[in-house]
């Protein structure tokens, strides 16, 4: 497992692999790796000869643009632990790409070209974190250009992010296949996330309610409830009563994340809520039943 921190170094390695006709997978991360990330690496390995894991805490997606400047500073940086976790898995990645901010944004990220996927970036999480998905789209586009992978792997927990990335890749004609990997959960149902580190033990137990609430809302839809606004309101009330500070619970179409109706076949319920110091997100897909 080689550690590379320059774009030139990555390009040289990638060029050698390409010359051998090898298939390359990229797993973009911001580090602080958990089992969910290791699952992404496993999926990458099944789809390519060579696997690159990038570890880069991207200031552009935390910037004051997105209203949570402080979150960038406190985001856990755990490179040594991450390296150990990656080298301990059955098939470790070939490369960890961990550039400094200066290597990714030589002119400073405020000055550099940025990419906006319209509409879908400004709803749901985008409404609460303005500019966040511009930061995500820009850094993912840069990483795809740097690593030139055949496939790139992302978690489905970040459902909206995955939609933004699929649109970006389609609109800008990146020759890469995007693979989404199902959310990995704790025993109590809590979706694994780097941000769970901000939860106390008691909150970690209580946080299970997030997924339970999604499951209940799904059951209501499957039982024939057509009043989606009512389902959303009930879910928000339930989370608030349990001490969460919900931002939204929304039933949307999976394809474009527009509001769903009972007539839509592919729907997803998305939630974002604060518990203590942690902003948690999760989702559950609800397919229309025959
Ligand atoms: O999901 C993440 O960890 C980040 O948003 C990503 C995709 C690595 C971009 O910085």
Could you say which structural class the secondary elements and strand pairing correspond to?
Answer: alpha/beta
- CATH topology heading of the largest domain: Rossmann fold
What small molecules does this complex bind? pantoate
Query: Mind describing the biggest β-sheet?
Result: 6 strands, parallel
Instruction: Give the SSE string.
Output: EHEHEHHEHHHEHEHHHEEE
Q: Give the DSSP E fraction (strand runs of 2 or more residues).
A: 15-25%
Helix proportion range: 25-40%
Q: How many structurally independent domains? A: 2
Which residue ranges are poorly predicted, with pLDDT under 50 across at least 5 consecutive positions? none
Shape: globular
Offer a few descriptive terms.
alpha/beta, Rossmann fold, Pantoate--beta-alanine Ligase, Chain: A,domain 2, 2 domains, 3-stranded antiparallel beta sheet, 39% helix, binds pantoate
Q: How would you summarize what this structure contains?
A:
This protein has 290 residues and is of the alpha/beta class.
Write the SSE topology.
Elements: E1 2-4, H1 7-19, E2 24-29, H2 35-47, E3 50-55, H3 69-74, H4 79-88, E4 95-97, H5 101-104, H6 125-128, H7 132-147, E5 151-155, H8 159-171, E6 177-181, H9 201-206, H10 208-222, H11 228-241, E7 245-253, E8 266-275, E9 278-287
Parallel strand pairs: 1-4, 2-3, 2-5, 3-4, 5-6
Antiparallel strand pairs: 7-8, 8-9
Helix pairs in contact: 7-8, 10-11
The chain binds pantoate (PAF).
Structural account:
It is a single chain. By secondary structure, the protein is an alpha/beta fold. The chain has two domains: 2-181, Rossmann fold (3-Layer(aba) Sandwich); 194-284, 2-Layer Sandwich (Pantoate--beta-alanine Ligase, Chain: A,domain 2), CATH 3.30.1300.10. The chain is built from eleven helices and nine strands. The strands form two sheets. The chain has a six-stranded parallel β-sheet with strand order 1-4-3-2-5-6, sandwiched between helices. Strands 7-8-9 form a three-stranded antiparallel β-sheet. It is globular and about 55 Å long. The model has no long low-confidence stretch (mean pLDDT 96). The chain binds pantoate (PAF). The site of pantoate (PAF) has 10 residues, from strand 2 and helix 7.
